[in-house]
């Protein structure tokens, strides 16, 4: 199995069986996200505790890239400080837009999020991959709605 096939399998798995896909009772933040370009929509819930993301969940509808990105994002930010979550959002965005400096992925591992590296070759998919991350940033700032345009 090639690396490309493995990455595709991870994205398809998270699309079919998204992790943390449920509304959250007692959330501190709720953010609505929408990508008008392709119609992806999501609601992100965050529970913060002492400057940490204690829990994250989402619901929504959209393409495989959008759902898989939200699934992997919610898993990746749990337990991180808000600053670490913001930094991870910056690295992920740089990855999918092709702006991650050479060798940065090795110095600052993205873990399973690296499966989205190929998105940079498909500019129309960048907004799909980053919708949940825009929602995360808005939630960490206390904003409630984000639209990628």
Describe this structure in words.
The structure is a single chain. The protein is α+β, with helices and mostly antiparallel strands and 149 residues long. It has a single domain (3-147), classed as Sufe protein. Chain: A (Alpha-Beta Complex). 44% of the residues lie in helices and 20% in strands. It contains five helices and four strands. The chain has a four-stranded mixed beta sheet, with helices on one face. α1 packs across α2 (64-77) and α3 (82-96) runs antiparallel to α5. It is globular and about 40 Å long. The termini are far apart. The model has no long low-confidence stretch (mean pLDDT 90).
Overview in brief:
The protein has 149 residues and is α+β, with helices and mostly antiparallel strands. It is built from five helices and four strands, in the order H-E-E-E-H-H-H-H-E.
- Uncertain ranges: none
Proportion of helical residues: 40-55%
Structural class: alpha+beta
Order of helices and strands: HEEEHHHHE
Could you describe the largest sheet, including whether it forms a barrel? 4 strands, mixed
CATH topology, by name, is: Sufe protein. Chain: A
How many DSSP helices?
5
What general outline do the C-alpha atoms trace? globular
């Amino acid at each position: 199995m090639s690396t490309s096939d493995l990455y595709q399998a991870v994205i398809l798995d998270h699309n079919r069986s998204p992790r943390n896909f449920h509304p959250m009772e007692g959330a501190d933040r709720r953010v609505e996200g929408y990508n008008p370009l392709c119609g992806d929509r999501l609601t992100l819930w965050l529970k913060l505790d002492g400057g940490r993301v204690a829990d994250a969940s989402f619901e929504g509808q959209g393409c495989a890239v959008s759902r898989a990105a939200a699934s992997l994002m919610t898993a990746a930010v749990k337990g991180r400080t808000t600053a670490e979550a913001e930094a991870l959002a910056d690295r992920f965005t740089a990855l999918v837009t092709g702006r991650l400096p050479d060798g940065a992925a090795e110095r600052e591992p993205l873990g399973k999020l690296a499966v989205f590296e190929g998105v940079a070759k498909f500019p129309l998919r960048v907004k799909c991959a980053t919708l949940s991350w825009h929602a995360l940033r808005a939630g960490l700032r206390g904003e409630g709605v984000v639209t990628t345009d």
